[in-house]
Design brief:
Length: 184
């Protein structure tokens, strides 16, 4: 039986590890959040110092979405804004919505649960209910496994899923009686 030199074995293992790392790096690069086109490509006409970071894309609060401290939810934009005092946006983020949408207009938070089971069977946290459509409660929640997968199209679900970090931020502002303004 032929013996493999230890240096040959180490070289083979190292090469295999490098290939695996390259594959994982390519997958990670492909799953990175989208950046605005202008931020992704440096401008050739402007010279920037190495410490200058690209400006993130801003998402202004939709017009006619109320005033004061509130949560604004855009059905078509699948985006939430957490608006604090003096109309300052504290956070904005995208969500994955179920196939049962709330009506447009002003709603009030009527129920909160720290944890539970969602209508889709997922373990959830920071459940904030603010509307009812066709007898189904509509609200925000975060899956404890971090999933923001699209809902099963064959089930009627009204969960508006957010990441766990976004859910924690919404939980702080969306107390019982708080305003949730829903826009198109």
């Amino acid at each position: 039986m032929a013996r493999i030199k230890s240096s040959t074995l180490v070289t083979g293992l190292t090469a295999g590890a490098i290939v695996i790392i390259a594959v994982l790096a390519a997958q990670a690069a492909g799953s990175a959040p989208d950046q605005p086109a202008a931020a992704a490509r440096p401008s050739s006409s402007a010279t920037k110092s190495p410490s200058t970071k690209p400006t993130p894309k801003t998402y202004p609060v939709p017009a006619d979405s109320g005033t004061g401290r509130r949560v604004v939810y855009s059905i078509s934009g699948k985006r939430v804004w957490l608006v604090g005092e003096a109309e300052k946006v504290q956070r904005t983020y995208t969500v994955v919505a179920g196939n049962v949408a709330p009506s447009k207009g002003i709603h009030r938070v009527f129920s909160r649960r720290a944890s539970g089971i969602g209508g889709d069977g997922a373990q959830v946290e920071h459940v904030v209910l603010f509307a009812t459509t066709g007898g189904i409660n509509v609200g925000f929640s975060a899956a404890t496994n971090g999933s923001t997968a699209p809902p099963d199209p064959d089930k009627k679900t009204a969960a508006i899923r957010e990441t766990r970090l976004d859910g924690t931020a919404l939980w702080q502002i969306a107390t019982i009686g708080s305003t949730v303004y829903v826009v198109k």
